[in-house]
Design a protein that fits this description.
Bound molecules: protoporphyrin IX containing FE
Number of helices: 9
Low-confidence stretches: 1-37, 45-49, 56-79
Largest sheet: 3 strands, antiparallel
Distance between the termini: 45 Å
Order of helices and strands: EHEEHHHHHHEEEEHHEEEE
Number of strands: 11
Strand order of the largest sheet: 1-3-2
Helix content: 40-55%
């Protein structure tokens, strides 16, 4: 079980969404037993159940929170989980060493006349800022790059993983993207970023992949900094809020037949992109994903260039593919096999 953990630093009253993969007895043990939580709603996505409840008593909240933590820790003490934790710690430490080594090498070989990459640009900014602030420093560089690795690699790779699953399930959509790419680009060169605005169907297809794949089902937890009201709902200061992105992407009041894979919903009769304001795989607002434009560019280039060169299909045409997904921090497709033939 895991949950979106509230951080208790002061008074807290609010709602929390808990996501559990093992809910047996969960409500009995932690909610109805303790008056501190008022259970509001339970819902299910795939194999995962989600509980939304309100916390109305700070004292109790602290106590219950501790119990939930203990419960979680007990689970972590299982041997397999302990191994997982060690694997994660080791991976983190390897990544940290790798990045530290690169920052050191960049400092040693720094040449202001030859700025090669992000670390060089960071070093320039660090020099410019050093007289005014101490915000940009060695530790900040490390954590910034770690953030980019942690938040930017699995999300982007997983979305690509989904994209080819959809393409082998819908060969007609794949073919239409390929026809568009061939018509606009021709056989002789690779697709560039500047081609994107001429490839509307391919763009709409990727939007539909985002909408139905939901690599990030939830955002990162946020806290209301003051009392506020949204759509008539009172949200007291300090409420932990975990927006649920999939609920927007499958909302029947926004999308016709929301469960159907249909890139056409993002195009009008003149082949212009429409409805993009309702698609929020990177969340919305001031704390939305800062990697959005990088991710969109990477995804477009990789997806369109691979479709340009290869035809993707199921290994066994009769195989029934699963679109349920496995939810962890991101939601990944279940393992699947595909065939790639040169076009
Ligand atoms: C398909 C790819 C990606 C998806 C679906 C995605 C999605 C998200 C979502 C939903 C959030 C939470 C926003 C919120 O809490 O409201 C987020 C946060 C974040 N993302 Fe991405 N992301 C992707 C790629 C990237 C890339 C490439 C980078 C950087 C290189 C990145 C860096 C971050 C960071 C640093 C945050 C935390 C922002 C904060 O705390 O304010 N992401 N992302």
């Amino acid at each position: 079980m895991y949950y979106s953990a509230p951080v208790f630093d002061g008074e807290f009253t609010g709602r929390v969404v808990i996501n559990t993969t093992n809910s047996e007895g969960f409500i009995d043990r932690f909610i109805t037993k303790h008056a501190g939580y008022t259970f509001l709603k339970r819902f299910q996505i795939g194999r995962h159940e989600y509980f939304v409840f309100e916390i109305n008593d700070t004292q109790r909240t602290r106590k219950i929170s501790k119990e939930i933590e203990d419960f979680d820790i007990k689970n972590l003490k299982l041997d397999s989980e302990k191994d997982n934790l060690k694997v994660r710690r080791d991976a983190f430490s390897t990544l940290k060493k790798y990045i530290e080594k690169h920052i050191t090498e960049h400092r040693e070989s720094f040449d202001p006349e030859n700025i090669k990459d992000f670390i060089d640009m960071y070093l320039v900014a660090e020099k410019d800022e050093s007289e005014r602030t101490s915000v940009l420093n060695e530790a900040a560089a490390l954590s910034l790059i770690m953030d980019m690795f942690a938040a930017g690699t699995d999300t982007t790779a997983t979305t690509l993983d989904w994209s080819f699953l959809w393409m082998i399930q819908y060969p007609d959509v794949q073919k239409r993207c390929q026809e568009e790419i061939t018509k606009v680009i021709g056989p002789g060169r690779m697709v560039r970023l500047s081609d994107r605005r001429h490839l509307s169907y391919t763009e709409a297809t990727f939007m539909e992949i985002h909408r139905l794949s939901n690599t990030a089902i939830f955002t990162i937890p946020h806290t209301a900094v003051c009392d506020t009201t949204i759509n008539g709902f009172k949200i007291p200061k300090n409420t932990i809020i975990v927006p649920n992105l999939i609920s927007v992407h499958l909302d029947e009041t926004i999308w016709r037949d929301p469960k159907e894979f249909n890139p056409g919903r993002f195009l009008n009769q003149s082949n212009d992109i429409i409805n993009k304001e309702y698609l929020i795989p990177f969340s919305s607002g001031p704390r939305a994903c800062p990697g959005e434009s990088l991710a969109r560019s990477e995804l477009f280039l990789i997806f369109s260039n691979l479709l340009h060169r290869f035809e993707f299909s199921k290994v066994d045409p009769d195989e029934i593919l699963s679109f349920e997904g496995i939810t962890g921090v991101t939601t990944t497709p279940s393992p699947y096999r595909l065939k790639a033939d040169l076009r």
